[in-house]
Amino acid sequence: MSHEHEPHQFSVMDVLEQRWSPRAFDRDEVLDENRLGPAFEAARWSPSSGNSQPWTFMVGFRGDDVFQTIVGTMASGNQVWAEHAGAVVANIASVVDAEGNPQSHAVYDLGQAVAHFSVQATAEGLMVHQMGGFDAQTLGRELELDSSQRVVTLMAIGSMGDPAELPEKLQLREAQPRSRKSLSEIVRGSAHYA
Ligand SMILES: Cc1cc2nc3c(=O)[nH]c(=O)nc-3n(C[C@H](O)[C@H](O)[C@H](O)COP(=O)(O)O)c2cc1C
């Protein structure tokens, strides 16, 4: 299901057009490793600095302990909808390598892996909503990460649900058209766009 948005200036692949970040997830859907497999495979094969692959994905399925731990560290405004997703994932960057050197591109690489994940997930009929609103320090402690690892973002994953099940304020946000800066604002130099 795509979402109303401003017209594209150029057409893009269907999955990119269809991807957006919903809050209404199917509350009954049960996800498992097979359902998420293609998206994790896409993340696995994304490029990274020196092929360092500085990412780990901590997965919880709705109802299990990992799920509860991750949801428990979310900002309340995220918890209220994300607790109904089929899965939540903590996206973890290894910011220090095995020799103790900083991996300065780790967060960038993780973000790119998550982007590939979300595009593949969309192709599989799943929606992905990324979050920065959570307590990263507490989650890192509860997941027993060492100091070389940092939880950068979370994802809620699942099929689209019924927006009518959301609190009224979120129903309104869910219906808002999506918008973006124009190409002329974000692309500079010798390339000129309207
Ligand atoms: C790093 C990052 C952090 C985000 N944090 C939150 C968040 O805490 N809560 C939320 O509802 N959405 C969050 N989002 C989703 C963005 O608000 C959303 O991607 C943006 O508004 C564009 O909308 P779209 O994904 O539907 O195109 C986050 C997205 C990213 C990439």
Describe the SSE topology.
Layout: H1 14-18, H2 33-44, E1 55-61, H3 65-72, H4 76-82, E2 87-94, H5 106-123, E3 127-131, H6 136-142, E4 149-158, H7 168-175, H8 183-186
Helix pairs in contact: 2-5
Bound molecules: flavin mononucleotide (FMN).
Task: Report, as a whole number of angstroms, the end-to-end distance.
Answer: 29 Å
Question: Helix coverage percent of residues?
Answer: 25-40%
Which sheet architecture does the biggest sheet show? Answer: 4 strands, antiparallel
Beta-strand share of residues: 15-25%
CATH topology: NADH Oxidase
- CATH superfamily, called what? NADH Oxidase
- Strand-pairing-aware structural class: alpha+beta
How many β-strands, per DSSP?
4
Q: What is the topology, as strand order, of the major beta sheet?
A: 1-2-4-3
Large-scale geometry: globular
Radius of gyration over C-alpha positions, nearest whole angstrom: 18 Å
The top-level CATH class is Alpha Beta
Question: How many distinct folded domains?
Answer: 1
Chain-averaged pLDDT? 96
Q: Under the CATH scheme, which architecture would be assigned?
A: 3-Layer(aba) Sandwich
